[in-house]
Design a protein that fits this description.
alpha/beta; Alpha-Beta Plaits; TIM Barrel; 3 domains; eight-stranded mixed β-barrel; elongated; binds ligand C2E; binds magnesium ion
Length: about 550
């Protein structure tokens, strides 16, 4: 008993001596007692304050409606607020409200610099949203509360699709503007009792108590829609998409770190399926995430140990059956698993950034090899090289290409760079500048897999390109699908109209060749003539010069 009294006396001393404004209120927010710092701050007498609803003094506080729910749920509520001080100035605080066991509430207004440092850790400077630090804390609290109320918690992790394109294309300043705008939209998308935080980079996290899974679907849909609204950067209109991974407590994990990790696996799953969607975590994603990390490590080793080789697939002139060029296609000879297709490892290389050194090696090797064929006196043909988006985004890509070609001693006209339609979006001026840089050097530029991208046709005349490669999907289905035949026909006509070279990929049989010939597409690359072959076999084909169906089998 004596101890209790002692404690109470100490607390009262602390309360009145505190430099921070502190108020205690009843459960319905009526002021019971305010300390001197608070009285000084608002410029009202203690008597005036007593019995007053504290919320009336905090009119600028945006999220006050949520306080009741929050306190019931977690017994603590933290929010940055501003209020008008006695001098009329607006003062900003971090307000911490604690629910005391007897039903009273303690309101602590923090403003000093020590707390500011703490605040920096809790809130993201750029967007003002809670940081990962506070997010983790709130997630813990949500889990504890849900245990008590038998509810579930949904954790959503959202990443903006291809955000690096914005940063690299428009600069970091604009990138920051975009993040701020998105953060503001997200804040409006969620209920007051939910949390949205910035988890770093272009990733945001959401915490919400849910009664049914549908609740989280609804939020995910709303978030996607909010991100999807176009936004204006300088005079450009940009439309973004996002990918969301969802985990549920307690089904998907018992602790926050595994829930967060799994929400990331689910988000990656969405991204690798084209983005602009959400997905719930599924157990096999853990497995896939592990495989992906393993593949990334093996790729790194492959680069160091020179386990890559280039194969070459001839491009053939239909009329004369002469080889007029080749596409360089990478293969990975893994010491344990044998030959691995680029389809399996290029996407991982792109995501991890490893495609940049790999792509540079491809460029060097293709130039070196083509020069060697020239030196051997073989017919001189152009070699096409696939360039991935992260490579092309590099500010110095033109310089790099120039440097590599110069070092190889190969005349520039014997190189063609293949890019895809998706690389022509973003900062159009910079894209055009880079393409012009390559063209000025004498390098040709092809649009690969043409017809599968989403760009509008109007861009074609704006970019200095030389070749369209019809995607093999259109050639493959020519016989069975009238529509694809029409598309192939239209692409050929379009190239002729724009005076571009046109190459059909994936011609596999005589009927394909017949159709393409009839439509006036004279250059073909496909299994009908030859699969991609190693450099030695390609030299043999070049020596003969002409190729007939299945020569390389
Ligand atoms: P791509 O650039 O469109 O290359 C053409 C692909 O179609 C090659 O697959 C080729 O083997 C295949 N192909 C050619 N003719 C036929 C045919 O008649 N029938 C069928 N079914 N397929 C045919 P590959 O070599 O497996 O390469 C797949 C993709 O991997 C390439 O598609 C390209 O996007 C990427 N890739 C390959 N090498 C590189 C590289 O060095 N760098 C980058 N960034 N990507 C590469
Ligand atoms: Mg290609
Ligand atoms: Mg292609």
């Amino acid at each position: 008993m004596k101890n209790d009294n002692n404690l109470r006396a100490v607390l009262e001393q602390l309360f009145s001596a505190s430099f921070e404004p502190v108020v205690s209120t009843s459960g319905d927010n009526l002021i019971v007692v305010a300390n001197g710092a608070f009285v000084d701050l608002v410029g009202q007498e203690v008597e005036e304050l007593e019995g007053k609803n504290i919320l009336e003094l905090l009119e600028k506080c945006e999220l006050l409606e949520s306080i009741q729910e929050r306190l019931e749920a977690c017994h603590q509520w933290i929010q940055d607020i501003s209020l008008v001080s006695r001098s009329g100035a607006e003062v900003t605080f971090d307000l911490k409200v604690n629910q005391l066991p007897d039903g009273e509430r303690l309101w602590i207004f923090n403003s000093n610099s020590k707390y500011d440092r703490n605040r920096d850790a809790q809130f993201d400077r750029l967007t003002g949203l809670p940081s990962q630090f506070l997010f983790d804390d709130r997630a813990e609290q949500a889990v504890i509360t849900s245990n008590r109320h038998g509810k579930s918690v949904a954790i959503l992790r959202m990443g903006i699709d291809h955000f690096n394109r914005i940063n690299e294309g428009l600069g970091h300043k604009h990138g920051d503007e975009v993040l701020k705008e998105i953060a503001a939209r997200l804040k409006h998308t969620i209920r007051n009792s939910d949390t949205v935080a910035r988890l770093g980079g272009d990733q945001f996290g959401f915490i919400m108590a849910i009664t049914a899974i549908d609740d989280s679907i609804l939020v995910a849909e709303k978030v996607l829609e909010a991100v999807n609204q176009s936004l204006q950067i300088d005079d450009q209109t940009v439309t973004l998409t996002a990918s969301i991974g969802i985990t549920l407590y307690p089904d998907d994990g018992k602790d926050i770190s595994s829930l967060l990790q799994r929400s990331e696996s689910a988000m990656r799953h969405v991204k690798s399926n084209g983005g602009n969607n959400f997905h719930f975590f599924a157990a096999e994603m853990d497995h896939r995430a592990r495989m992906r990390i393993e593949l990334e490590n093996r790729l790194r080793r492959a680069l160091k140990n020179q386990e890559f080789v280039l194969f070459y697939q001839p491009k053939v002139d239909i009329e004369s059956s002469r080889i007029v060029g080749a596409e360089a296609l990478i293969r990975w000879i893994d010491p344990e698993k044998g030959m691995i297709s680029p389809i399996e490892f290029i996407p991982v290389a792109e995501e991890s950034g490893l495609i940049v050194p790999i792509g540079r090696w491809v460029l060097e090797e293709a130039c070196r090899q083509n020069r060697a064929w020239h030196d051997q006196g073989l017919p001189q043909v152009k070699v096409s090289i696939n360039m991935a988006a992260p490579q092309f985004r590099d500010r110095n890509i033109v310089e790099q290409v120039r440097e590599v070609i110069e070092k190889s001693g190969l005349p520039e006209k014997y190189i063609e760079i293949e890019i895809t339609e998706s690389m022509l979006v973003g900062d159009i001026e910079t894209v055009i500048e880079k393409l012009n840089g390559l063209r000025d050097m004498g390098v040709d530029i092809a649009i690969d897999d043409f017809g599968t991208g989403y760009s509008s046709l109007s861009y074609l005349s704006r970019f200095p390109i030389t070749t369209l490669k019809i995607d093999r999907a259109f050639v493959h289905d020519l016989e069975s699908n009238k529509n694809t035949a029409e598309i192939a026909r239209a692409i050929i006509a379009l190239s002729q109209g724009l005076e571009l070279e046109v190459v059909a990929e994936g011609a596999e049989n005589a009927a394909h060749i017949e159709f393409l010939k009839k439509q006036g597409c004279n250059t073909v690359q496909g299994f009908f003539y030859s699969r991609p072959v190693d450099a030695g076999s390609f030299a043999e084909l070049l020596k003969k010069g002409v190729i007939s169906a299945g020569d390389a089998e």
